[in-house]
Design brief:
single chain; alpha/beta; Rossmann fold; 2 domains; 6-stranded parallel sheet; binds uridine-5'-diphosphate-xylopyranose
Length: about 425
């Protein structure tokens, strides 16, 4: 099939490369000419395991191409995917739809033959109706349809998530569109993925509901971890035993720092905003948002307490600063609250992350990037394992730090505490 992905960010690029790998002709479009030129040379703008190889391979075989000429890309395609950003608006919690709606206008000017427009951007329920209305001002409804196809890709695991999704959700009541999209996904369906055809509005809401539910699971276990710390119980035991109940399920029950990333914080805010517009109170999701905000404060207090509230000139080392492992994404990472806070309190901070130096910290005093783990740890009063990179799972801290007495705060519970605890090393985990 001939597809184009409008927007070559995370969703558009990963999905485009994966669709081309399934044998389709895919054009990835972006208005950022520099990005397009780099992609043509095989330079990938994001860190995502396996993506570079996938892009290069499919580009070489001419199934995948890059352009900033959106009109040409639409004209050449039967299926047009909208994959642009929907960030939180600056002045309120609603999703900013300006990019989606402006792409809809451009599409409306370039439809001359049958097209299926598929929205992959995360958008509030009823956005598909708006896109359809914009296009139908210029184009006869008989030659286009607008469907919703939310993505559920996790950063760091996106290629595997694309190829082995639990479910593929297509929101459309148009039989032709449903048939064509089902056949586009047939290589994945035949490997066992479930295909769900629902209403367009239903598909839009499924995306937000799923993310809000996962955020709820995480906040739930994070709050229980607080109780475990007070009652000397181990959150790991609670998670495992709870998760074995099939009605609950074990995934997304890992206690840690406040959840972050480009989706959960933004999408929980946006669904509450949508519900407000429809005069519906999503009190549980509101509590989750509050709980996650409180968690950031709670962990700042916990770090301060580990340092006995004497922060000035203390050396704190952060191992990992991204919001999770296997990504270079810093969006809403809890490190972006912790590092500035302790820098302002007079601590000396070094951080190491496998994805390198971060601009987010460049304006903060006494915050240094270390190019390796040893350099980051050496001399530290407190080592914080902030992100669960594999590189940090079996470190010998006594060899890495020449300081006699120091603490390790393992915010992802990746270490076996019995092994770390020594006379001179104090170990702290989450909920244990
Ligand atoms: C998420 C959704 O999982 C994905 O389906 C959606 O399409 C995009 O948003 P992503 O943001 O890439 O994906 O990361 P995810 O693995 O879901 O983690 C989000 C946050 O939750 C991270 O901060 C992570 O550390 C945290 N988390 C996740 C936990 O604290 N505990 C867990 O058990 C799982």
């Amino acid at each position: 099939m001939k597809l184009c992905m409008i927007g070559t960010g995370y969703v558009g690029l990963v999905s485009g490369a994966c669709f081309s790998d399934l044998g389709n002709d895919v054009i990835c479009v972006d208005k950022d000419i520099d990005k397009i030129n780099k992609l043509k040379k095989g330079i990938i703008p994001i860190y995502e395991p396996g993506l570079e190889e996938l892009v290069k391979r499919n580009y070489k075989s001419n199934r995948l191409s890059f352009t900033s000429n959106i009109s040409e890309a639409i004209t050449k395609s039967n299926i047009v995917f909208i994959c642009v950003g929907t960030p939180t608006k600056k002045n309120n919690n609603s999703a900013d739809l300006s990019q989606v709606l402006s792409v809809a206008k451009i599409i409306s000017k370039n439809i001359k033959s049958q097209k299926i427009i598929v929205n992959k951007s995360t958008v509030p329920v009823t956005t598909g109706d708006k896109v359809e209305k914009i296009i139908s001002k210029k184009v006869n409804k008989k030659i286009f349809s607008v469907a919703s196809n939310p993505e559920f890709l996790r950063e760091g695991e996106a290629i595997n998530d694309f190829n082995y999704p639990d479910r593929i959700v297509i929101g459309t009541s148009n039989k032709r569109a449903n048939k064509i999209l089902k056949s586009l996904y047939s290589p994945l369906i035949s490997k066992g993925s479930k295909y769900i055809n629902t209403s367009r509005r239903g598909a839009e809401l499924i995306k937000y509901a799923s993310n809000a539910f996962l955020a709820t699971k995480i906040s739930f276990i994070n709050e229980l971890a607080n109780l475990c710390e007070k009652t000397n119980t181990n959150i790991e035991d609670i998670s495992i035993a709870m998760g074995l109940d099939k009605r609950i399920g074990g995934r997304f029950l890992r206690a840690g720092p406040a959840y972050g990333g480009s989706c959960f914080p933004k999408d929980t805010r946006a669904i509450v905003d949508t519900a407000n517009q429809f005069k519906t109170n999503l009190s549980i999701i509101k509590s989750v948002i509050k709980s996650n905000e409180n968690r950031s404060k709670l962990l700042l207090n916990r770090i301060s307490a580990i340092l006995k509230n004497r922060i000035k000139n203390k050396k704190i080392c952060f191992l990992g600063v991204t919001f999770k492992a296997n990504t270079d994404d810093m969006r809403e990472s809890s490190s972006t609250k912790m590092i500035p806070y302790f820098s302002k309190k007079g601590a000396k901070i070094t951080y190491y992350d496998p994805t390198g130096y971060k601009n987010e910290f460049k304006n903060f005093k006494n915050v240094y990037y270390a190019s390796n783990i040893k350099e980051a740890c050496n001399g530290a009063d407190l080592i914080i394992i902030h992100t669960e990179w594999n590189d940090f799972k079996s470190l010998n801290f006594e060899k890495l730090n020449n300081k006699k007495n120091f603490s390790v705060y393992d915010m992802r519970n990746i270490l076996q505490n019995e092994k770390i605890k020594k006379n001179n090393i104090k170990y702290f985990g989450i909920g244990r």
